[in-house]
Structure formats: C-alpha cells, structure tokens
Amino acid sequence: xxxxxxxxxxxxxxxxxxxxxxxxxxxxxxxxxxxxxxxxxxxxxxxxxxxxxxxxxxxxxxxxxxxxxxxxxxxxxxxxxxxxxxxxxxxxxxxxxxxxxxxxxxxxxxxxxxxxxxxxxxxx
Amino acid sequence: xxxxxxxxxxxxxxxxxxxxxxxxxxxxxxxxxxxxxxxxxxxxxxxxxxxxxxxxxxxxxxxxxxxxxxxxxxxxxxxxxxxxxxxxxxxxxxxxxxxxxxxxxxxxxxxxxxxxxxxxxxxxxxxxxxxxxxxxxx
Lengths: 124, 138
What we know:
heterodimer; A: mainly alpha; 3 helical TM bundles of succinate and fumarate reductases; 81% helix; B: 3 helical TM bundles of succinate and fumarate reductases
C-alpha cells in the first residue's frame, strides 16, 4: 500500500523548490555584485564604508536583502532537515533537531537583520 | 534497529551499487548543500561584525581578503553553481513531470557549469595575486 505523504511534507517540498528558484536569482545578483565583479585592482578590499555606500545607493538593495535573508535561511535549514530526515530519526530526536533548527534559523535571521541595519546605516 | 554507524554504511553501499548520473547528481546536491549551509553560518558570523562597528568589520573582512581565501571563494562559487544548476534540473524534472529528460538536462547543466566557472575564474583572477590587494579602494 502506498505510504501517505503528509500535507506538511508536500508544502516543504514545494517551498524548497520555490525558494530555490528565487535563490538562483538572488545568488547570481549577490555573487556578481559583491564577489565576482568587485574589481580588487580598482576598488581595493571590501570595507565598511564601501559596503555602506553600495547599500545606500538604492532602495532596491534594502528590499533585495530583506527578501533574500529569510529565503536563504529557510532553504538551507529545510534542505539540511531533508538530509537528516533520511536517517529516520526516533520521534523524540526528530522533534529536538527541528527545535534546534528553528532556534538556529531565528538566530541567523535576527543576526542578519541587525547586520544589515548597521550596514544600511543613517536610519535607512 | 540499525545504529547510526550501520545507517551510514548502508548509504555508502547504496551509493556504490547505483553508479549512474541520477545517483551522482543526488550526492553532488547533498554534499554541496551541506557545505553551503555551513558556509551560510560562517558568512553570517563574519558579516555580523558590522554590528560592533566599522573597525571590527574591517578587521574581520581584512582577514578573509587575500589570495588564499580568493581560491576558497572559487570553491564556494563552484558549490553554488553546482547546487543551483542541479536544483534547477530537479525542479524542471519535478514540475514538468519530465523524468525521462533528466539525463539530457544533466549534460546541459554540466556544459553551463563549465562556462560559468571559466567566466568566474577569469573575473576572480586578479584576486589570486597579493600585490593587487594594495590598490586604493573605497
């Protein structure tokens, strides 16, 4: 008999793919702007003033990073959970791991928002 | 009940039994995914120095900007592109019910990966030389 798949599993499967598609866009932009197209010979090493200048240059970057962070954290932790779930944990262990992932996810998002608000600067 | 050790041995045995494109890309996706999730935590840690102010941020960012980290960055970019392209392949296969085309997609993605990596290495090239880090900058 076919094993019933829970609604939550279907939802996380779907969200993993949707967040993955969005991350393809986010990461190509992020890698190009902040890694690959940063010309070390012209711009020198990345520093606080330079990053703040870039982020303050347009409202777009604020919207971009505030949207990027939750998607990347969800995709990373949900992906790790899928890897761990393949080990068929005991029910109690699974609840504990999920709780730890929730805590880690909240810490990552809060840290990223605090970091971004400092880099945006000037009450932006 | 299997122990964790025997579960891991079982996974390795399964991987060796099925030497095909699907299994290979499954492992590439898992390994790059785990690596990128670990990198996300490290990346957040390095950038969070901005919370303490410009001086701490510049000090921590200065530590990771040299030719050694530029080479590691290429590995990171390879991991991102591998995971991204294989993820798109999985999504296309799932959403368009096109499992028969997954092998063709694998080779298309492989060619795109090679092209992207050639461009990435070309753009990253100046960062492999320490003298270039002395440039004026911001």
